[in-house]
User: What shape does this take?
Amino acid sequence: MRENGTRYDVVAWGEGFLRLSPSGRERFEQAGGFGVSVAGGALETAVALARLGLRTAWLSVVGDTPLGMKLVNKVREHGADTEQVVRIPDGRTGLCYTETGSAPRPTRSWYDMGDTAFRSARPGTEDWSVARETAVFHLDLTVPMIDPANAGRLEAALETARATDSQVSVLLDAPGGEPLDAEVKGRVLDLVETADILMVTLRALESIWGFDGPLASAADEARTRFGDKKTAVVEHRFSASRPGVWDGIAVSDAGASYSGSPAEVHVIDSDGALGAFAAGFLFGCLRECTGSALKYGNAAAALACSVPGPLNWFTRQDLASQIEGTGSGLQR
Assistant: This one.
């Protein structure tokens, strides 16, 4: 599927890193060995969309080292284009240490992202012109992207987003509890302003815009605050008050609102859920309408939780079965 004769359907920008996790659900203090997974919101979305049959590319910077090449090779293995990934000699690859929890113990992650190739790169390192060769230019603004070390990189992405004629998509998540760095918050708000398609977590809506209410009332907030964007708000608190439940609402660019039935999922690993939702939502936006996009997004997020690791391994048939309710344990 190519939209309007463009080279790509979706180009996704953001940092990739490696996730280290103890075997099974051990604590780090127990562990004698670790599993290594490729991670990063942008590459997760690019991979998922490639597996759904779209022409996608990952735009990023990695170290020209075996660790950096592990990221590139895994993304390429799934069919996403890595031609736009810049390789920096001896550049560092970021690490994330994750303990996969099981209720009542939540999943916890610790990031070691200092001086990575991505963060150390000059703002003009990437070839941003690729944003003019795609139907959708997708920006990952999830943890750990929204970090003071990335302020200059976010500024470069903002300049590109403002200049391109492509649709701009933003996936935004911000952990609650601590306010964003003022400079980063300014860049984030500017990027949200440029977006044609916005996907935001409920906790980001709370921490950045002060929203105080249940997910069901977020549609009015989104309609008022984000105007004519295609917007989705998702609940992403598996280990809080509603473990094992994924839910979301959406508002079209014409102001129509949509809600989905909460998806009850047996969470094996929730790390890839947001990137998967973004893939499903974009898939639906390119194919159909905002209401369908929400169904695709919710289904993709639920499927992502059913396998270990952040990468999304589902197929188009898996997605159709999830939406139609024909798979085991699935619901409309």
Q: What stands out?
A: The domain at 8-324 is CATH 3.40.1190.20 (UDP-N-acetylmuramoyl-L-alanine:D-glutamate ligase). The chain has one domain: 8-324. The chain has ten helices and 14 strands. Residues 255 and 299 are 23 Å apart (CA to CA).
